[in-house]
Structure formats: C-alpha cells, structure tokens
Amino acid sequence: MTPEQGARFKQATQAIDQGQFGEGIRLLQELDLEVDDFAVNRQLARALFEDQRFVEAYQVAERHLADYDQSRQLADFYVQLALKNQLFIPARQFISLATHLTDAEGRLVKRAEEQYDRVGAQTLASRRRQFIHMGDCSFREQQRRFSEGRMLPLSDYLVGAKFLLRDPDTHPLIKSSLVQVLQQLRLNEELTVLWLDEKEHPLNIKELKPLGELTVVKEGERLIAARFADQDPLSYQTYLREFHLQLAFLYPFVELAIEDPDAWVQALVAYSASGNEEPILRAHQWQERINALVTRLS
Predict the structure, then answer these.
(1) What is the mean pLDDT of each run of 10 residues along the chain (298 residues)?
(2) Among 154, 144, 162, which Cα is nearest to 92's?
C-alpha cells in the first residue's frame, strides 16, 4: 500500500474499532478494489463478519484462502466463517489442507453438521434431492447444484457423489470436480467412476494424487513451455489453457488417455492429425472426443 492507502487503512480500522462498521467496511472495500493485500482482505472479512454479513465475508476471505493458514487464529476464523454459511465441505477441505489446525476443528464441523441436520432438516432434504439428481439437468444447472452441494454434511455429500460418479448423465467436468473435492478431503474411500471411455473404473481416493502433481501433467506443461513460452507467448498461453481444459475432462484417469506426453502435445498443437505414429493418432482421437464434449457445452 502507498502511504495514502495506509492512512485510509488505519482510518478504516479505527472506525471498525469504534463500532462504525458501515464506514469502516466502505473504506476497506474501496481499498480492496485498489490493492491485492491480505491485510485489507483480513480486516474486511472480519468487519463483514462482525456486521453479520456472512456471505460477503466468505466471498472476500475465499480470495486469499491460502493466507488464512498463516496462524491458528486465522485458520480458525476461516472455518468459523465457512460454518456460518453452512459450507461444511469447504470447511473440511480447508481443515484437511491447513497446517495450523487439529482434529478439534474437524469435530467442530461434525457438530455443526449434526446441529443443522436437526434445525434445517427440510432445507437439507431439498439439497440432498437436488444434488443426487443433478444428472437430469443442463450443465449450467449441474454447476449450480454442484456448488450448492458444498452445503451438505459430509455423509450426504459422499452418498450423492458416489451415485453421481456412476451416473451416465452427470457431466464429465462435474465428475472431475467431485473427485477433486473428495481428493482434497483426503478420504479413505473406494468408489467407481463411469469415465469418458464409457467404462466403469474403480478408484481409491486415498491413493489419488492432486491433478497438478501427476507426472504426465508436469511433463506436458514442460513440453508446451519449452516449445512456446519464449518464442510465442500468446500461443503458449492458448495451448496451456487448452491442455488444462483437457485435463479437467480426463481427471482422475489422466494417464489412461495421456500415455505419451510428447505425442499428446504434438497432437494438441497440430491443426489436424499429423504423422502416422500410433501414440499421436491415439492422442488425437482422445482430443477429438474432448473437443466434441466442449462443443456441446456451447
């Protein structure tokens, strides 16, 4: 922050300390538009929380998720904020990845889930139905229901996810997102996924690596960077985005499609199938299948 912005930050802090939340929040929101600073984010999230504007507070804090793991106090605040919004799954995701939290926070989430199951039974029943039956809907509606599913207790979320991963009408991107959530929760669960090849594949969530840690992913990114990063930065960004979109469709079975990262990248950057090498032809076939799914989205 500049000295002038620092002075406004101090003014906002003083207003909040004096209980003038409206003025303090206004000043912090202005600063938040000007600078990407965790000090501003933290103070704004706390002010909104104290003013009982929990949805806005969470939306602000979520933009600096990793920074809230800097201390036990900050991490505990983030969990409390998630629970105020009945965001049980994001609370658990954060706890599973945080370095400053213990099993006590997990028990806190469990108690919050049980309490909401008693006082919000009707709302929860509706969320369960909408979540588990999202395959009947358009992709946009599936996205909405996937997001709302974060407000389910873990037991309900897991039951719904297991069903949706075998449902042929669940969109592949939704399936991929569900698996990524379960992986972040570090569950020891066996499940089955009906994948892009229209076959069912068994999966142990505990053994699954995050997408970005897969060797074929790192190698694909390296090959794209080596070919384009310096010579053609625009093409580099274009191909990298397309590669990441393909990965989103393929996860969690990326290696079943990308057998040879070099052949995959060659197929990716060619305008049409090039060469007679079998690995490149197989990669091109997979990419055509993904392109057809992308086209259907629009």
Answers:
(1) 92 94 95 95 97 97 96 95 97 93 88 92 94 95 97 97 97 97 94 97 95 97 96 96 98 97 94 70 94 86
(2) 154
